[in-house]
Design brief:
binds zinc ion, 34% strand, 13-stranded mixed sheet, two-stranded parallel sheet, 15 strands, mainly beta, 7% helix, 2 helices, binds N-(4-sulfamoylphenyl)-beta-D-glucopyranosylamine, 242 residues
């Protein structure tokens, strides 16, 4: 921790500012292109083990150390997040299991796919056996019938600061597409502290939520909470079809 400023050197009431994180060479999000992606059938199949029914706890969160509750601002570092009970959901790659910890949303999408930015991007955040982070990204558009977990979460948002909303019996398995083909690349957290070493698997097949769900999330984050696209800097994006 930095030592406190000597008395009288900081204007009273001034907010503390966090230093900008060092921008590494492998940041996220990036512009994804199916045409430029290298076909990679040799990569391990994505095996999803998500439940048909799980109870979630939804709240606002912030990655900004100056706004730990996510209550004061609705910007780049804030999101709406659903916590998944320990052991309830995960994925495996080559027999190695990654536990689903939480999922959250960004609007508009953070990644782009073939030049398109989607209305919403859902991030399923997993932790590996050694604490590695693996995120599955899913693009969401409007025009859906409603009733997906994303609709349920975004239609019943917490109103009070710090309030937790319980969502019972969420069908996480049913939210995923039949085609689990993914674009994979090494990247970072898209919010502070933008830590690298994150494995990104972005589903090629977008999903859809109801138009009114899109309106809700846009009302909540009028300026969006998506980070700018970051340079690939020579990274290879691979396409694992399955
Ligand atoms: S994102 O998917 O790149 N937008 C993203 C951004 C921040 C986090 C995760 C994903 N934060 C991390 C925290 C960890 C925590 C993990 C799971 O989320 O840095 O401390 O364990 O909740
Ligand atoms: Zn995210």
């Amino acid at each position: 921790d930095p030592s406190p400023a000597p008395p009288g050197t900081a204007p009273s009431g001034a907010a503390s500012t966090s230093p900008a994180p060092p921008a590494g060479p492998q940041q996220s999000p990036v512009a994804l292109s199916t045409a430029d992606a290298v076909p990679a059938p040799e990569l391990p199949e994505l095996v999803v083990d998500y439940p048909r029914s799980v109870d979630l706890s939804v709240r606002y969160v912030s990655r900004d150390p100056d706004d730990p509750t996510g209550c004061t601002t609705r910007g780049r570092e804030e999101t709406i997040e659903a916590e998944v009970p320990a052991g309830a959901a995960g994925i495996s790659l080559d027999g190695v299991r990654y536990e689903l910890k939480q999922f959250h949303f960004h609007t508009a999408s953070e990644h782009t796919l073939d030049g398109r930015r989607y209305a919403v991007e859902q991030h399923f955040v997993h932790a590996g056996p050694n604490g590695e982070t693996l995120v599955i990204g899913r693009f969401l558009d409007g025009g859906g019938p409603g009733g997906t977990t994303a609709d349920r979460v975004l239609d019943d948002l917490p109103e009070e600061c710090g309030e937790e909303i319980a969502i019972a019996g969420a069908d996480l398995a049913g939210d995923l597409p039949a085609d689990l083909s993914t674009l994979r690349y090494p990247g970072s957290l898209t919010t502070k502290p933008n830590t690298e070493g994150v494995s990104w698997l972005v589903l090629r097949t977008p999903g859809s939520v109801a138009d009114e769900t899109i309106s809700e999330v846009r009302e909540l984050f009028p300026d969006g909470d998506a980070r700018d696209l970051q340079p690939l800097n020579g990274r290879v994006v691979r396409l694992r079809e399955q």
